[in-house]
Amino acid sequence: MLDAILKPKSIAVVGASRQKDTIAYQILDNLVTWGFNGSVYPVNPNAQQIHSIKCWPSVSAIPEPVDLAVIVVPKQIALAAVDECGKKGVKGLVVITAGFAEVGGAGVEREQQLLAIVRRHGMRMVGPNCMGVLNSDPAVSMLATFAPRMPRHGPVAIVSQSGALGQSILDYGEELGIGIYQFVSVGNKTDISGNDLLEYWADDPSCRAILMYLESFGNPRRFAELARSITRKKPIFVVKAGRTAAGARAATSHTAALAGTDLAADVLMAQCGVVRAQTVEELFDYAMAFPRLPMPKGNRVAIISNAGGPAIILADACESSGLAIPELAPDTQAAIRKRVAEEAAVRNPVDLIASARADAYREVIRIVQQDPGVDAIIASFIPPLGIQARDVARAIREAHQARPDLPLIAVMLGKKGVPDAMEELVEAGIPAYVFPESAARALAALNRYRLWLERPAGTVQHFPVDRAAADRIIAGARADGREKLLEGESLALLGAYGIPTAPWQVVRTVDEAVAATKRMASPVVLKTVSRTIVHKSDVGGVVVGLEGEQAVREGWKRMHTRVKERSGVEPEAVLVQAMCAGGRETIVGMTRDPKAGPLVMFGLGGIFVEVLKDVVFRVHPVNDVDAREMVRGIRGYKLLEGVRGETSVDLVALEEMVQRVSQLVGEQEAIAEMDINPLVAFPDRVVAVDARFRLAR
Ligand code: ADP
Ligand code: MG
Questions:
Q1: DSSP character for 543?
Q2: Distance 644 CA to ligand 2 centre (A)
Q3: pTM score over 0.70
Q4: Ligand 1, atom 22, residue with closest C-alpha
Q5: 36-78 pLDDT tens trace
Q6: Ligand 1 pocket: which of 524, 690, 693 to mutate (most atoms within 8 A of CB)
């Protein structure tokens, strides 16, 4: 369906103008000048010809079918023009005209009417308030924007939510020699969104990479679904501006407190293999490397430079972004040693020193290419007196011909003579950068993309659970007018979803507590049960390690006095729980993003969770591979795996609990946020001892 917009056979320019300094003229001029492969019909009731082309008084007067209408009329008559297009049977629209929802007030209403007309006629629309579309494929050759020129044809499809930024993206791409396939400025995204374009480009073999500039995800879940499958075939790069306003939400769980405002977007993109760029510049660092480089087989990088400084910057940038700079094999070092100056360093980074000529680059790169411990090479050059960057570029290119399957990136620092050298490299398919950090960043991103491609997709598990029991607990709390589940309700809810809890019982009197203790046959913990107290230990509401009747009676008294003192309220009841000592404390939680849905968290738990902040998030649903990555992805993973001869905790059980929580929050939409803290992990099992749930109003 989007073919009518991106591969039209005929285009009407509605509102075409003779005045050369107008957008309306520019668009018609661009279509003609850049040789659109189809018919063009200017529409303007006050002109006979524009640009030597016969002009039509109205769309309906055009005798032939029209695939696409580009609307450039003033906003006051835009709706009527669009309606006429619908009557004529036009299939696609690009509405350049502004003055809709972006101006607020009457504009919002005008935009709704516009969409209603578009829908009524079964048309599709890009815009309004956009800068147009282009398709550089020679078979189409459509420049339906007011950009000054057609970009060079290539494999990169671009969608931009900002017209101005779209223009600078095109300019920047041109400067870097990046070929563009199609470009769509989506404007207000009233009908066609970034997601529609993702879908459209998914199976188009001419599109080999997708660049997106987004200010918002219209529908993050659909984006995730599409991106997850597309990134298996071609990379998607996103610059996402704008932050989600989650700040003001009342956060009672650790999970909500730990989820930063832009977290959902970040997690969502990482989880579907999207490469996120922070800036447009970074976006193009990636666009320079990805289509040109073969996929590296691993993350080991050799650096070859003619100066120490850039070599160190490169090495640091590589290592801090997940690449390794291993020492080269002894044979490799010996072979390099034979060809370079005595002062040169040969271990990695290789520093050829300033006297190195082009030949040295060629030969040393060829030697390093033979080293089986190297997955990619970065060659960096800073022009010393008397050595031509062009010669070095040629030498790098020649060396590359011997091993085109091994990723090779060039960094050409400094100004003089470097632009031609860079062009020479880029033309030979070698990404070339001015800054070392850009090269490292791009290679690191490519390496992460490799890991994504190698990663199994995973499956979402469905555990048999007692949903009815869970429903009853939630309904009970609601009937009681509470958002907070009481301590016993929380643990019972976990039980309904197959999450093991330490034996517990809620009691009203100290005698009941003593009786419960006897049944549990272990040291116990007493915990305050309250409608209002959220963090029990903060108010002295948790007394641990009580053994025997005497201790329980004393603990009971101590707890009641402290809670009364510090919170001003009496415990409503007490939860007696068996002690679970000696395990590792972890946390599993969830907070709901208004658009992306539940964000599930795993991390190191206990009372210091917000201090340590050692947590990982994923967007619901969490599958088995996600859960595995979460448990293994925290900084303190070694503590779970066991340090100095300790046995590992039950990692499989932890992964299962993360997935059970994911299922729980997916099925029980009333849960606004929750966490299990701590979920105590032992070598043979995991046990939840505390959980907190807040229900949606
Ligand atoms: P809160 O988080 O509301 O302060 P918790 O029930 O999590 O209350 O108790 C606080 C801390 O006490 C836990 O982080 C844990 O270290 C310890 N604790 C609580 N219950 C047990 C238990 N059954 N066994 C061992 N330690 C416990
Ligand atoms: Mg707790």
A1: E
A2: 28
A3: yes
A4: 579
A5: 999 999 999 998 988 889 999 999 999 999 999 999 999 999 9
A6: 690
